[in-house]
């Protein structure tokens, strides 16, 4: 063999890490959490012979495209974060709902903080009706109202231009009752039933100029009247004369605004039943709480299985969120934030080149921070 030559070795085949190389197995989120239970509950719900939540059925499985094994990260609160698995990004998924809610709440917080910083008012509205036995009907009612509410907010500031237009965000939320209701949505007495309490949440930002010229009372009354008309249109009942079915809160400071924004995505903090004399009072369960109960108690499984299936079937193909003008105010917030960063860096740097470098470095560090 000639000098300075090495024997030929055939290259080893390059293979991607397999799930078996990772701690646990491919379906960790199935076997250890609530996602597997939810998949079993939803099994068999189809539309045009296809599973209506195919993405949810794949959530938690190993993502072979990233070329890495499943990774597990222990968090300070004792939970385990799982990466390199497929995500469905459904707001109702036990695995994905926290990250989905976090992204939405950060975006909404920017928009409505900007409205408050400009001297505007922020309204947080909760609209409820008597419970429906058929969850699909209650979802249709709230969807109808949310769409019309966006038009109402738009019309309220139609004659204004640019940043003087109102902004709004509406969402459909559902909580599961702890107790039974003995009256149907129209007030007729029926056999007691458990139900999904479907309700609307609206965040409305009214600019300073509009507040000064038109106030907020007229808009609130328009939205309240709209809710009453929509409820009646769907043959339901809502006791609005004393504010029971239509509640309005004002976010007059940043802390209160933050609590309202988070409340939109944290249904465990919301009252699930109407505070009517003939309806059971108390707080309802959110979906993870219901799944936990179902996993540990067969009676709870039988009680809530049909309700969970009805909620997912009713929400399929429907818009959960509607919004008006949010993107514009997010942009204004980020412009103002960037200006503050520039002012901060300018005070601590000398020379034009040093200043530009420092700004870019600060922005890069800010973007790279987790969460």
Nearest-integer average pLDDT:
78
Give me the strand/helix succession.
Answer: HHEEHEEHEHEEEEHHEHHHEHH
Helix count? Answer: 12
* Structural class based on helices, strands and sheet pairing: alpha+beta
Main sheet makeup: 5 strands, antiparallel
Tertiary shape: flat
Helix content: 40-55%
List the main descriptive attributes of the protein structure presented here.
single chain, 371 residues, alpha+beta, five-stranded antiparallel β-sheet, two-stranded antiparallel sheet, 12 helices, 15% strand
Briefly, what is this?
By secondary structure, this protein is of the alpha+beta class.
Question: Describe it for me?
Answer:
- With about 375 residues, the protein is α+β, with helices and mostly antiparallel strands.
- The chain has helices spanning about 30, 35-40, 55-60, 95-115, 135-155, 210-215, 215-235, 255-265, 285-295, 300-315, 325-345, 350-370; strands at about 45, 50, 70-75, 80-85, 120-125, 165-175, 180-185, 190-195, 195-205, 245-250, 320-325.
- The longest helix is centred in the middle third of the chain and has 22 residues, at about 135-155.
Topology at a glance:
Blueprint: H1 28-32, H2 35-42, E1 46-47, E2 50-51, H3 54-58, E3 71-74, E4 80-83, H4 97-117, E5 121-127, H5 135-156, E6 167-176, E7 181-183, E8 189-193, E9 196-206, H6 208-214, H7 217-233, E10 246-250, H8 254-265, H9 287-296, H10 298-315, E11 321-324, H11 326-346, H12 352-368
Antiparallel strand pairs: 1-2, 3-4, 5-9, 5-10, 6-9, 6-11, 7-8
Helix pairs in contact: 4-8, 4-11, 5-7, 5-10, 9-10, 11-12
């Amino acid at each position: 063999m000639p000098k300075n030559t090495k024997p030929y070795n055939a290259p080893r085949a390059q293979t991607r890490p397999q799930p078996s190389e990772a701690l646990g197995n491919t379906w960790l989120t199935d076997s250890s959490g609530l996602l597997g239970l939810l998949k079993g509950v939803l099994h068999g719900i189809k539309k045009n012979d296809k599973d209506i939540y195919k993405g949810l059925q794949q959530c938690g499985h190993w993502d072979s495209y990233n070329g890495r094994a499943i990774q597990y990260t222990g968090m300070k609160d004792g939970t385990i974060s799982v990466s390199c698995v497929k995500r469905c990004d459904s707001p109702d998924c036990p695995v994905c709902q926290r990250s989905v809610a976090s992204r939405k709440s950060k975006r909404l917080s920017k928009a409505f903080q900007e409205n408050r910083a400009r001297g505007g008012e922020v309204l947080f509205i909760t609209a409820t009706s008597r419970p429906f036995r058929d969850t699909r009907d209650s979802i249709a009612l709230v969807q109808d109202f949310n769409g019309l509410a966006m038009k109402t907010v738009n019309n309220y500031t139609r004659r204004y231009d640019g940043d003087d237009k109102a902004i709004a965000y509406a969402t459909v939320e559902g909580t599961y009752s702890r107790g039974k209701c003995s009256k149907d949505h129209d007030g007729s007495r029926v056999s007691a039933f458990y139900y999904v309490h479907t309700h609307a949440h609206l965040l409305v930002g009214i600019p300073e100029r509009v507040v000064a010229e038109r106030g907020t009372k007229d808009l609130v009354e328009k939205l309240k009247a709209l809710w009453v008309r929509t409820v009646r249109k769907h043959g339901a009942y809502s006791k609005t004369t004393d504010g029971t079915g239509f509640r309005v809160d004002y976010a007059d400071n940043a802390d209160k605004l933050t609590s309202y924004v988070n409340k939109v995505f944290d249904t465990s903090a919301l009252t699930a039943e109407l505070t009517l004399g003939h309806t059971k009072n108390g707080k309802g369960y959110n979906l993870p709480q219901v799944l936990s109960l179902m996993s540990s108690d067969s009676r709870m499984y039988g009680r809530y299985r049909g309700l969970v299936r009805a909620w997912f079937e009713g929400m399929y193909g429907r818009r959960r969120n509607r919004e008006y003008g949010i993107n514009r105010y997010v942009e204004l917030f980020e412009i103002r934030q960037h200006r503050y960063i520039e002012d901060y860096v300018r005070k601590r740097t000398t020379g034009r080149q040093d200043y530009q470098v420092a700004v870019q470095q600060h922005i890069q560090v800010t973007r790279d921070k987790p969460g």
